[in-house]
């Protein structure tokens, strides 16, 4: 592999060649965000790590499932992680297992030794963008994305018409995109 | 496309986008990449988390074990196909052929009837194999036909579900509008098209106490994909309050059903404007006013 950090396509080629350093780079580059997502949906770190392992092994075994024309590697992995976590959550519910709601340990927002400053900046950027959406858009997006509720289920829970729920989620995501675009164009403040 | 990425579309809507993406439409693919990137940014807001390093150790061990097996198979294949070994294999095959021919000839001479029986058994086995292959082919064809039928039925079910969902939604809207109209003290205003849309007409009904609001309009004309219709209240002191974006029903009716947190007390005007998709980026209308009605 080249000395410069490999991009998605180079990583994918390396995976196809069976170069396990590519697997290590994918883990180092995206493991933390996938783990955070798994923990948010499943509530338990061991379960999140278990699904993370499945998702990365799937990339290793079937790299051609990833289509760079449809998404970048990060987005592909995030959405696959979400989908697998929600499957596991539904399986838990249908099996009638009572899973204690995990109380998240207070997370430090300061960048750790392993976490880059860029990632901390990105977190602040997205948090601010979500705050700027206001309610109920922010809560509706979280119900759909993290809890896997269908829009009909959200409409029933909130008492809002289905069309309004869809419209608000769609509008919220479009605004989020626009805010992130604008913010990422601004010079970072130090 | 945003709703497509978070599984928020009805099956029929989803199939339509699947078809568009499968056709390689470059704008659709660009919109999909954009939507993926936006939705995938959501977990960035989560508290930091570090996966157990043993996850990577186990993955690497598993990957290396798999590579070792693949390597061994590869080296065995390399042995079989190296030029020196090809000659050795050919010599061995020639020897075996001669041996088998001599043996078979001897057997033929020594025991012709046993050879005939062997040939008959081989022939029978061959026939059985051919029959089983035919049965297998038939079964494959049956499975393919059944799969096509199942896919067809799934598609029909999806269309019916979409229709039922749409009708249920329309019924729910009608019920809630009726309930609102029956409440004492509700306000209503008729809206007429401006010169931009002279044929348009609509009505807005709201309950100032609960904040419930319903709007319905017709003949506003076709809406470009990158535009939205937005409904507004304008107060006597020229303040604008966005009431939300209009939903376009299959029959062309434009509706909005919402509950306002706070209803302005001095509403002078209700109006519909044409805005960029997702609504006005500012506090008031940015596009042309297409319908308006004075609140009395």
Sum up the structure in keywords.
heterodimer, A: 190 residues, mainly alpha, 8 helices, globular, B: 296 residues, alpha+beta, nine-stranded antiparallel β-sheet, 9 strands, 54% helix
Which helices and strands occur, and which strands form pairs?
The complex is a heterodimer of chains A (190) and B (296).
Chain A: H1 8-17, H2 20-42, H3 45-61, H4 73-94, H5 117-133, H6 137-145, H7 151-158, H8 162-185
Helix pairs in contact in A: 1-2, 2-3, 2-4, 3-4, 5-8, 6-8, 7-8
Chain B: H1 2-5, H2 11-22, H3 26-40, H4 53-81, H5 83-110, H6 112-182, E1 187-193, E2 201-206, E3 212-218, E4 227-235, E5 240-245, E6 247-248, E7 254-259, E8 267-276, E9 289-294
Antiparallel strand pairs in B: 1-2, 1-9, 2-3, 3-7, 4-5, 4-8, 6-7, 8-9
Helix pairs in contact in B: 5-6
Commentary on this structure:
The complex is a heterodimer of chains A (190) and B (296). Chain A has 190 residues and is an all-alpha fold. Chain A has 8 helices and no strands. Chain A starts with 7 loop residues before the first helix and ends in a 5-residue tail after the last helix. With 296 residues, chain B is α+β, with helices and mostly antiparallel strands. Chain B contains 6 helices and 9 strands. Chain B has helices at residues 2-5, 11-22, 26-40, 53-81, 83-110, 112-182; strands at residues 187-193, 201-206, 212-218, 227-235, 240-245, 247-248, 254-259, 267-276, 289-294. Chain B has a 9-stranded antiparallel beta sheet with strand order 5-4-8-9-1-2-3-7-6, covered by helices on one side. The longest helix of chain B is centred in the middle third of the chain and has 71 residues, at 112-182. The radius of gyration of chain B is 37 Å and the shape is elongated. Mean pLDDT of chain B is 81; it is low at 75-83.
